Amino acid sequence: MISKQKNTERIERKQQKIDAGLLSDRYSGVSSIVIIMNYYQKGSAQTFMQRTVNFSPKSSAYFLMECMKHDCTNGGFDLESVIAKMVKGRLKSKNGELACQGNNASGHTRIDYKVNIQYNNTAR
Description:
Blueprint: H1 2-20, H2 23-26, E1 30-41, E2 47-55, E3 64-65, E4 77-78, H3 80-88, E5 93-99, E6 109-119
Antiparallel strand pairs: 1-2, 1-6, 3-4, 5-6
């Protein structure tokens, strides 16, 4: 049943990306966002993976990063509020940590992240 649940989540996520609109529409003063994440997964041996996600003005303004645990449902790491606060304060960089709150959370994942935002010169 996990695969059916995952397929439903993929369809919902695709629609959410469409609904989020473009970065240029949502945050018109932003020229790029780079999110660097280090994933850590508990288990018999803690595993680590690094991921970098780049956003341009033509990218979807969707900032829910998926959990990397294959059996996780309804999880992930929502960086929307982090980015919204950064843009409001015109912050260029922020570090933090989030834990996945998804279902099937045994031995679950967490991330530490760094968000870098570049602004257009004309935006104020």
